[in-house]
Amino acid sequence: MRSTKNKMLLLLQFIAVCGIPAAVKGGHVEVISRGFPGKPMTSINRTWLERETKGNFNCVVLLLGTNDACNSKVLSDEKTFEKALNFTVDTILAKKCKLVLLTIPPCNESCLFRRHKKEKFGSLSPNQRIRKFNCIITETAHRKNIILVDFYAVAAKYGTEGNNSLLHIPDNTGVDDGIHLTARGYCLLAQNIAEALRNAGCTNGRILCLGDSLTYGVGTSHASETYPAQLKKFLESSKK
């Protein structure tokens, strides 16, 4: 019963106002959240990207790739993923704003395989796919001199099982998910991004958080728990 209820709650979060931008203003920083649950990197085209990044932003924070690696309906191969990533990065950089890339956090495969058929992933497991895509993200960031936040390394320290995991799993929240983050996970995500932005001297102006369900905040119980909302708080607190 609990599993069914939790799945319904997650589904409702996916559907509700999906992709509608949310902005949190205050002080000298404005954080705009545009998260699209289920969206893979390889689905991005110029029209969509120009629409979602329309406006003057000091910085864009990009977190995409979980669906390319873990969603059996939209899985991507390495070559296609790299091409899509480079197109996205180059289009954003052409706007003359700072860009932050994030590596994809690991998943709990046991939970994932209750929703997705294992055979759909072929010879590479979801976490193997995540690691390969993260290599591409990391290499791209280094090659193009882009700010990189290795959130995979952060989340991996807490594991994908047990009460300490940053993922929603039966062990810690009773939710059979394995992909989306707990409130603590979103908080640590925001903290690491805030630190990277402070180090880069980008703590003012308009910051766009662009991504999939991890940006949208699936798994949170309140908008204030999403990473963009917490990012704004961390950036503002550093100025006091």
Task: Annotate the secondary structure layout.
Elements: H1 2-15, E1 22-24, E2 29-35, H2 46-52, E3 59-63, H3 66-70, H4 78-93, E4 98-102, H5 109-112, H6 126-143, E5 147-149, H7 151-158, H8 183-199, E6 205-211, H9 213-216, H10 227-237
Parallel strand pairs: 2-6, 3-4, 3-6, 4-5
Antiparallel strand pairs: 1-2
Helix pairs in contact: 4-6, 8-10
Task: Please outline what is shown here.
The chain is α/β, with parallel strands linked by helices. The protein has ten helices and six strands.
Task: Describe the protein in words.
The protein has 240 residues and is of the alpha/beta class. Helix content is 43%, strand content 12%. It has a 6-stranded mixed sheet, with helices on both faces. Helix 4 (78-93) runs parallel beside helix 6 (126-143) and helix 8 (183-199) packs across helix 10 (227-237). It starts with a helix and ends with a helix.
